[in-house]
Amino acid sequence: MNPNEMKKQSGFIEFLGETFEEFGLIDARRMFGGYGIYHDGIMFGLVENDTLYLKADEKTEKLFESKGLTQFQYSRAGKIVKMSYYRAPEEIYDDREKAATWARRAYEAAQNRGIKKEKQKK
Prior knowledge:
Layout: H1 3-19, E1 27-31, E2 34-39, E3 42-48, E4 51-55, H2 61-66, E5 71-76, E6 79-87, H3 96-121
Antiparallel strand pairs: 1-2, 2-3, 3-4, 4-6, 5-6
């Protein structure tokens, strides 16, 4: 990623800190040309090209889809790989309460995913 893109991306990440201030502190970690968005050590979002995607699970993916929000996907070895993250609704950028609500949903989905993985290991 060139320095101008990094600077632009960093500004968006800083903006997300403000967007989620009612939810709590977030941390952004570089990953694969984008960022993972974390709260209390759990990744609940990701950013790619200044676009925020939030973690979804069986309970929340229909909510994302009902709003016409697209699923995060990328190409690997000529195949499309879809992840359980959906584009965040635009409304969160202007309404801190809605941002906190969506962040909590994503955080809970990420926590539930971790619990399922633990149960599968046993």
